[in-house]
Amino acid sequence: MDNVTPLGGDVYEIDTRMAGYSGITAGYLILGDRPCLVETGTSTSAPVVRDALTSLGVGPNDLATVVVTHIHLDHAGGVGDIAGHYPSAEIVVHEKGARHLADPSRLMASARMVWGDQLDRLFGRLAPTDAARIRTLGDTGSIDLGGGRTLSGHHSPGHAKHHVGLLDSFTGDLYVGDAAGVYLPETGDLRPATPPPDFDLQTALNSVALFGELGPQRLLFSHYGPVTDVAATLERSAEELRIWVDLTTQAHTAGMDLDHAVAMVRDRTRERYAALSAENEETAERFELLSGAPSNVAGIMHWLERTHPDAT
Q: InterPro entries, per this entry (predicted)?
């Protein structure tokens, strides 16, 4: 299939074709003795992911595990649908996100407030998962991939309180979710993902530092794809976080409202990203959807208002 890319080590990247786009959200199949799907993509992507698994020889009773880095709908919106199609699969998530997979009503209501009429087109609806099938990870935890191979979970909040990074003991691949930001392979751009309500700068920087300490051989971004220059990429991730926070802090201190803060930060960061040049309109659209300035600035402003209430 044209949306499946072998990455070596029995790892396959699956383009989930979120909202019909290519190269926007990746799921990954680790095809070992106990096949494991990392990230399901959205609910509307579930048929695409299912077809990809079928093409790789994974039938309804073959998938052992589904694990998500966090429960945001572009990563975990398809969990309920995928769980229904693969009845033998255990569903693994951080303990702080588990209840939202079992009962998605609050999560969906919150997403509706943020996305409005775009919710159905972009994400679809997260179906509930039987709580008995959900296994939780704490600060650490391990997933058995068979043959002595494991996927170890490492709590990495900052982007979201329930975020985990996942390290493959065989390949050294680290599944970074959104904790290291959003990467565009076409341009090499990396931009932070700092949405409300959970963003916290020091926690996010600590998570990036933890990723470096784990010594991965490769970073596998959910948005989007593999990166082998690990040290430089994580350094850039931390730099991007600081730049966006510094600029948003300036706007906050100046008493700007959200719209004016977004405009200022967008203008002052534009030249950092090749994706935002005029000849890359479609790429820019994808970049904004994944790591939009309004969402990023709103998340940082929310953090500033919580931690620096008297700054203005």
A: Metallo-B-lactamas, NDM-1-like, RibonucZ/Hydroxyglut_hydro, ST1585_MBL-fold
Residue whose tokens read 């700054």: 311
Half-sphere exposure of 179 (CA within 13 A, CB side): 33
Which residue is it, tokens 């969906």? 108
Tell whether 162 is covered by a domain: yes
CA distances from 288 to 56, 192, 224, 282 (A): 32, 11, 14, 10
> CA–CA distance from 309 to each of 19, 159, 253, 305 (Å)?
38, 21, 10, 5
Domain that holds residue 18: 4-229
Q: What confidence score (pLDDT) does residue 278 get?
A: 58
Model-level pTM?
A: 0.95
The rounded distance, in Å, linking the Cα atoms of 113 and 106 is: 11
Is 235 a domain residue? no
Q: Any bridge partners for residue 134, and if so which? A: 91
CB 49 within 8 A of CB 78: yes
For the chain, the domain total comes to 1
Identify whether 132 is part of a domain: yes
Starting at the edge strand that comes first in sequence, how are the strands of the sheet with 164-168 ordered? 140-146, 149-155, 164-168, 173-177, 218-221, 225-227
- Is 81 within the bounds of a domain? yes
Q: Average pLDDT, stretch 297-307?
A: 93
Tokens, residue 150: 């494991």
Q: Please say whether the beta carbons of 75 and 39 come within 8 A.
A: yes
d(CA 211, CA 294): 27
CB of 283 within 8 A of CB of 244?
Answer: no
Which DSSP string do the residues of 76-139 spell out, in sequence order?
HTTHHHHHHH-TT-EEEEETTTHHHHH-THHHHHHHHHHHTTHHHHHT--PPP--GGGEEEE-S
For residue 186, give both structure tokens: 């076409």
Q: Report the CATH number that the domain containing residue 64 is assigned in CATH.
A: 3.60.15.10
Q: Which pLDDT band holds residue 120 (cuts at 50, 70, 90)?
A: confident
